Amino acid sequence: MGESNDKILNRMIHQKKVQHLFWRAGFGLDFKTLEEVAQTSIPNIVDELLDRGSNPLKIPHHPMVSKLMGERMEMSSMKNKDLTKLQRNKLRKEGRLIVGQINTDWIYRMASTDESPLLERMTLFWHGHFACESKLPHHAINQLNVIRQNALGNFKDLVLGIAKDASMIRYLNNQQNRKNSPNENFARELMELFTIGRGNYTEKDIKEAARAFTGWFSNTKGEFRFAKHQHDFSEKTFMGKTGNFDGADIIDIILKQKETATFVAQKVYSYFVNKKINTQHIQEMADVFYNSNYDIRSLMQYVFKADWFYARENIGSKIKSPIEFIAGLLKVLDVSFPDWKTLIFVQRALGQTLFRPPNVAGWEGGKAWIDNATLMFRLNIVAYLFQQSEVNFKEKEELEAAIQNKRRKKLQATVNLESLLSLVQLKSEDEILRFLMNGLLQTETKISKDTINRFTFHSDKKEFLKTALIRIMSLPEYQMC
């Protein structure tokens, strides 16, 4: 006897919950893995995700970073007047190229089944939370490692690591924060954006915190160094406490405020659950976070095991960010790009480039991801990948120029459908469409299978599969997760 209708319905509901979890705690699932994982209970999946993500390996420097660093160190020993414009430009160009390669290496890790999806997802979240541009490759790798090492660890360690990070020190001008002329940039953003949020500190707190962070510099190797002669050792009064505070003391005092746990919990809820805030759920999260002494793993475990996380209003409610969208494509379609710079172009065309946030507040997200410059590219990118049509190689901000430009070229990519083809080989066309729609869409679409079927090619199974993927992944519902 076959399955009862109730069993079939429960299995479908469970699969949707699994898909939802992996789109929020990772970057989706390929069809084969989805079939395997869907046999496991949600609590067990969450525990496995957390366990895999809790032992991060340090990412080694890109092979070219050591060479570039050697050249930089050699040139830094030269007198400024001896550095030619050609030498400076050469180093800058090489640096940009390597940061680009670090960028694309990371995206492939997001899509890889060999990596922890939750660790990469948490690293991406904190990358946006502690928004910072990394112009130098060793700075980019060092910051990425600071975040990865603490992404599911203790929030205090993460904040302290970021405060000592060369990219952040230079991005927010703490390199210029000296005892006789304090620079308030980092101290302000530490409270406003990274920890406790507006309304929970005063301008005097900012000034006192800036004094505490004086002398927190980095050297040419991107290592933290404490310049004692530039640090203000005098007494400071911060958030009602008085003492000879340094930066670590400031962070400790901030974390003692329950408002910090609430602020971070709200950021986590907005990113992983829903942009429509539920104050009760956020308060529950804040209690868990604060009472666990800011243990990030405990917070995420609570979120992913909560019944409300899987509520209908949360599933398929989020517009995929460009990075989520790209990593999901790589995972589902097994895409590779012969030229890594093409993957940089795709990010720019969609409006989000790793290591290049628009400002210290990071990417706005939500509806900001969709506009006239990005929508058509999103809807057609799968066709571009299958070489079914051509694309203007223009970035988001060059939309009008792109419309005017007649020159078009192929988006060079390789799509491997063999694994997916083997899964559908014995299925009818109607079954294939149902299989694809269930696996790709988090919410139901108004477009019927029959309508999609009319716009697919039927010459052979592979061509049918390819065109069905193009049609389904161009639907507005595929933009959601």
Termini, distance in Å?
35 Å
* Computed CA radius of gyration, to the nearest angstrom: 24 Å
The protein's oligomeric status is single chain
Number of helices: 23
Written account of the structure:
The protein has 481 residues and is mainly alpha-helical. Among the domains are: 53 residues; 62 residues, no CATH class. The chain is 56% helix and 3% strand. The chain contains 23 helices and six strands. Strands 1-2 form a two-stranded antiparallel ribbon. A two-stranded antiparallel ribbon has the order 3-4. The radius of gyration is 24 Å and the shape is globular. The two termini are 35 Å apart. About 2% of the residues have low confidence.
Brief account:
This protein has helices at 5-24, 31-37, 42-53, 63-76, 85-111, 117-129, 137-150, 155-163, 166-171, 185-194, 203-212, 247-256, 258-272, 279-291, 296-305, 322-333, 340-350, 372-385, 399-404, 418-424, 429-440, 449-454, 461-472; strands at residues 216-218, 224-226, 236-238, 241-243, 335-336, 414-415. By secondary structure, it is mainly α.
Structural features:
single chain, 481 residues, mainly alpha, 23 helices, 6 strands, globular
Write the layout of secondary structure elements.
Blueprint: H1 5-24, H2 31-37, H3 42-53, H4 63-76, H5 85-111, H6 117-129, H7 137-150, H8 155-163, H9 166-171, H10 185-194, H11 203-212, E1 216-218, E2 224-226, E3 236-238, E4 241-243, H12 247-256, H13 258-272, H14 279-291, H15 296-305, H16 322-333, E5 335-336, H17 340-350, H18 372-385, H19 399-404, E6 414-415, H20 418-424, H21 429-440, H22 449-454, H23 461-472
Antiparallel strand pairs: 1-2, 3-4, 5-6
Helix pairs in contact: 3-6, 3-15, 4-5, 5-7, 5-16, 5-17, 7-8, 8-12, 10-11, 13-14, 14-15, 21-23
